[in-house]
Amino acid sequence: MTHEQAQKILDKVREGVAYPASIVDFALFLTGDLDAHEAHGSDTVNGVNHEDNQNTAYKNRIARNF
Questions:
Q1: What is the torsional sign of CA 57, 22, 20, 47?
Q2: pLDDT category, 50, cuts 50, 70, 90?
Q3: How far apart are CA 66 and CA 57, in angstroms?
Q4: Which end of the chain, C or N, has fewer beta carbons within 10 A?
Q5: Half-sphere exposure of 27 (CA within 13 A, CB side)
Q6: What is the helix (H) or strand (E) element at residue 49, kind and residue range?
Q7: What does DSSP say about strands 48-49 and 44-45: parallel, antiparallel, or unpaired?
Q8: What sign does the CA torsion over 43, 57, 39, 26 have?
Q9: According to DSSP H, which parts of 1-66 are helical?
Q10: How far apart are CA 20 and CA 64, in angstroms?
Q11: CA quadruple 40, 29, 22, 43: dihedral sign
Q12: What is the pTM of this model?
């Protein structure tokens, strides 16, 4: 993924398009908005799928960075 592609993905996430958390993490990492230690690369937290909640959290994090 290029920096430009990462920016386009993050734009789509802000518009409400759902992407896997690992893709969003990588896009945030490439754009400098996510430290490697913050990236989890998984849609499952404590054995429960939280993809919708994570996408909301990512949208909030992305919105704060712009």
A1: negative
A2: very low
A3: 15
A4: C
A5: 21
A6: strand 48-49
A7: antiparallel
A8: positive
A9: 3-14, 21-30, 51-64
A10: 20
A11: positive
A12: 0.56
Query: The tokens of 16 are what?
Result: 């409400």
50, amino acid identity = H
Structure tokens belonging to residue 27 = 């896009």
End-to-end CA distance of the chain: 21
Gap between the Cα atoms of 32 and 41, Å rounded: 16
Rounded CA-CA distance 53/44 in Å is: 11
Packing angle of the helix pair 3-14, 21-30 (nearest 10 deg)? 130
Q: Compute how many other C-beta atoms are within 10 angstroms of the C-beta atom of residue 38.
A: 11
Q: Are 54 and 28 in contact (CB under 8 A)?
A: no
